[in-house]
Design goal:
By secondary structure, this protein is mostly helical. The protein has helices at residues 2-47, 57-70, 87-94, 123-138, 149-170, and strands at residues 82-85, 103-106, 110-114. A hairpin with a 3-residue loop joins strand 2 and strand 3. Helix 2 (57-70) packs across helix 4 (123-138). The structure holds zinc ion.
Length: 188
């Protein structure tokens, strides 16, 4: 009996030790993975570029087609990149100070939309996305080439609002987007 007890306890102990070591290794591995994921997430937040969403692609295609019917723009096959951001992150991205912007087009980057917007289901939000898609189509268009930077930005905004409101009228909405032109006083 002595020899049986003597053999069994060290064997069990070593088994327990092996299990403990394995459990530690798994925990360390999980911790490394979690840390890497956290750093990646921080990177994305820092650069303001989470992965673009493709969930809105059907809505975007439909809106680009609508813009073609409401203007003389011709939409390319390639869709703009669309990023969803929390409101505060969006404001930090496009405004120098807190602002209530909920959608913005940034040339060569794409369209940034506040996460609270629901363009697939909400008509007002859809009209806001259409406005930014107009800016996407305006980018590099020769009709703005001869203008001064201020006059160009003003003309682009006026046109985007006009097409947005034509869209709202077409879908039977009473809502109209208002263009506040005070920040585009090009005579200053
Ligand atoms: Zn605009």
């Amino acid at each position: 009996m002595r020899s049986v007890v003597g053999d069994t306890i060290p064997a069990r102990l070593s088994l327990v030790l092996i299990c403990l070591v394995l459990a530690c290794l798994v925990l360390i591995w999980a911790a490394v993975l979690a840390t890497t994921a956290a750093f990646c997430a921080q990177d994305q937040v820092a650069s303001g570029t989470t992965a673009p969403t493709q969930q809105l692609d059907p809505t975007i295609r439909a809106l680009l087609h609508t813009i073609e019917t409401l203007s003389d723009y011709h939409a390319p096959e390639a869709l703009p990149r669309v990023y969803r951001l929390p409101q505060l992150q969006l404001e930090a991205k496009v405004c120098d100070e807190p602002c209530n912007v909920s959608a913005a087009y940034v040339p060569r980057e794409g369209i940034y939309l506040a996460e609270s917007l629901d363009p697939a289901n909400d008509l007002s939000d859809r009209a806001a996305l259409l406005h930014e898609l107009v800016h996407y189509l305006q980018q590099g268009h020769p009709k703005f080439a001869h203008m001064t930077p201020c006059a160009r930005e003003r003309a682009k905004e006026e046109e985007a609002y006009a097409i947005q409101n034509a869209y709202l009228a077409e879908i039977g909405s009473q809502e109209r987007a208002v263009f506040y032109d005070s920040e585009f006083d090009c005579a200053r």
